[in-house]
Structures are given as structure tokens and as C-alpha cells.
Amino acid sequence: MPMNDTMNQKEKLMAFAYVFLLFISITTICCLLIFYYNSDFQVFSQKDFAITKMERIKEYQDVQGRMYPIVDSLYSKINKYNPAVNAMYEENEIKLMINELNNVHNKYSWDTRYKVFLHMSEFYNMWFIDKKNLWSKKENSTKFKKDMEECQMKSPDRR
Questions:
Q1: Which of 94, 127, 135, 145 is most open to solvent, judged by the fewest CB atoms within 10 Å of its CB?
Q2: Which ranges constitute the DSSP H helices of the chain?
Q3: For residue 35, what pLDDT is reported?
Q4: Any idea what the Cα angle at residue 58 is, between residues 56 and 63, rounded to 5°?
Q5: Residue 109: helix, strand or coil by DSSP?
């Protein structure tokens, strides 16, 4: 006699329920392992991450667009700056523009892309200070040469 004939209807139903519950539990465990622990299938979080990243890129491009005229005018102001003309308003305006670049970096210091604004502010500040120092040293050199010529003209030639 085959085994199926010896099982009654209740035993068949219990065996089916047992196999069905086993199948559902194993399927659930496998799905959790595949979809929950595998980050490649976390579509929604990746989508949110991509959207956030695109928004940050757009914000960075907007900041770049706003800062471009400041950087351009800062370059031309430092290039045309003449320390011989004692114009404090020009010097203060240059310092203000340099601080604006530095403030952009400070505002977004958590994002490394904004470090370029810090580097630009440091570069322009060094260029500005070097330009003033160079002018001062040239003026001192010219003054010393002039004083030396005056001393040579006043003192008798001793040979």
C-alpha cells in the first residue's frame, strides 16, 4: 500500500500547513538577509542620498556664481592697488572682499569643496600684504640711496 492511502485528511492538512509555514519562514529570513542587510538594495536611501548630493552640488555652483564677481573684482583691485596713494577705503574694501571669501569657507567648513574659498582668500591676502611690503621696501631702498647720496655730497672725498 502506498503511504498516501494510510494518511487521513487531517494528517495531510497538518503536513501541508507545516511545509507551508516552513516555506514562509525560510522565505522571510532569506528576504530579510538579501534586502535588509545588503546595502545595494536600499534603493530609497540611495535615492535620497543622490538627491541630497545633487542639491549640494547645485548649492555649491550657486555659491561659486555669487563669488565669481567678488573674486574677479578682488583680483583687479589688488592688481591696481598702489600703496603710495594712502587710500584707506581701497585697503578696507580689499580686506572686506578677502573676508567674504573666508566667510564662505567658514559657513560651509564641513564640505571640503569650499576649502577653495579659504585658499583663494589666503592667496589674495598674501598677495596684498606682499604688494604693500614690496612697495615699502622699495621706498626704504630709494630713501636710503637718496640719503647715502646726500651724505656723499656733504662729506669730503677722502682718498
A1: 145
A2: 3-6, 9-31, 43-80, 88-107, 115-154
A3: 74
A4: 95
A5: coil
pLDDT, position 2: 52
Q: Nearest Cα to 118, choosing from 101, 131, 97?
A: 101
C-alpha cell at 128: 596684498
As a whole number of angstroms, the distance between CA 159 and CA 47 comes to: 90
Q: CA 27 to CA 21: how far, in whole Å?
A: 10
pLDDT at 99: 93
Angle at 89 between CA 142 and CA 130, to 5 degrees: 40
Q: What is the reported pLDDT for 38?
A: 64
Q: Residue 7: CB partners within 8 Å, gap ≥ 6?
A: 15
